[in-house]
Amino acid sequence: MGRYVRFMSLWEYANPVKFIRTTDVVLPWVSVLAVLCLVVGLIWGFFFTPEDYRQGSTVKIIYLHVPAALMAINAWMMMLVASLIWIIRRHHVSALAARAAAPVGAVMTLIALATGALWGQPMWGTWWAWDPRLTSFLILFLFYLGYMALWSAIEDDDTAADLTSILCLVGSVFAVLSRYAVNFWNQGLHQGASLSLDKEENVADVFYFPLLVCIAGFVLLFIALVFLRTQTEIRARRTRALIAREQQG
Amino acid sequence: MMPDLGKYAGAVLSSYAVALGLIVVLVALSIWRARRVKAALDLVEKRNKRHG
User: Do B14 and A232 touch (CB under 8 A)?
Assistant: First the structure.
């Protein structure tokens, strides 16, 4: 029982060696599952679903746009949790995990913005509109860029982690806005959520199930990339520390 | 095999090309940096061991 409780303790993974050892085992499985879900979901969605009666074949963009948008917001939320852990408990792995997640979140936001524009042009007649959801997503993307730039601009890792954590707290407002902007302001071009607990609001089942597989693929891809990139950040930090020690000695 | 995308083929295919392209670049850069950093750490650790 004691061993079980010890295994379940999340704080054990604050130890960089333990984190790398565990993720080394998990990473190949998560990566294979991610590729499997993405291949199955995208092939199912692209080749084996019908056209929508209003949106025609553009509905196939949903399999990339919705999972990317979900991950854009959730990546920032993961960074927020990791930043709070850093601020409260000063675990370096959590700060480095937040740093590792930022480029992944930025790419997801960029995919959501690009596929949204490509979808919007034939449906709304415009690539871009200053709609509440689109605008909050653009601001979220700028926050991602600012967050990454701040990490790179500060030499001392702890100071960088402190300042980027504060930036992450501020940016969370826009991450939440990106998700709920459509509900806050009843205006703009963007429709409501494609996925909802209310079955009436959901997309039709024929699009819904491949979409779920694609979302699973994007979530697993995010986890795999964050594990890999956190390992890299931990190693880079250790390298810097060893070089600094060499120079002192 | 290829579904008929009609007049929206450009929008759909560009979306897939942009999204999958960005994902491939992100994955490739992540793997490339992971290998580079691991090799650099191995080198520094070896040097440290040699010099006690």
Answer: no
| Domain residue extents for chain A | 2-248
Are the Cβ atoms of B23 and A231 closer than 8 angstroms?
Answer: no
Could you read off the pLDDT of A113-148 as tens digits, one per residue? 999 999 999 998 999 988 888 898 999 999 999 999
Dihedral angle, C-alpha A99, A105, A106, A110, nearest 10 °: 170
Q: How many CB pairs under 8 A join A and B?
A: 94
Do A111 and A64 contact (CB within 8 A), yes or no? yes
What single letter denotes the amino acid at residue A186?
N
**pLDDT of the residue at A142:** 96
Q: At A101, phi and psi to the nearest 5?
A: -80, -25
Look-up of token digits 């792995």: A93
CA distance A40 to A36: 6
Tokens 């926050």 locate to A143
Report the pLDDT averaged over residues A89-105. Answer: 96
CA distance A2 to chain B (A): 35
Any idea where the domains of chain B sit in the sequence? 22-52
* Residue type (1 letter), A139: I
For A27-49, the pLDDT digits (tens) are 999 999 999 999 999 999 999 99
Q: Which residue has the tokens 């992944």?
A: A104
**AA letter at A216:** A
Contact (CB<8Å) B22/A107? yes
Query: How far is the alpha carbon of B22 from chain A, nearest alpha carbon, in Å?
Result: 7
Of the segments A129-143, A193-207, B7-21, which one has the largest average pLDDT value? B7-21
Separation CA A155–CA B41 (nearest Å) = 19
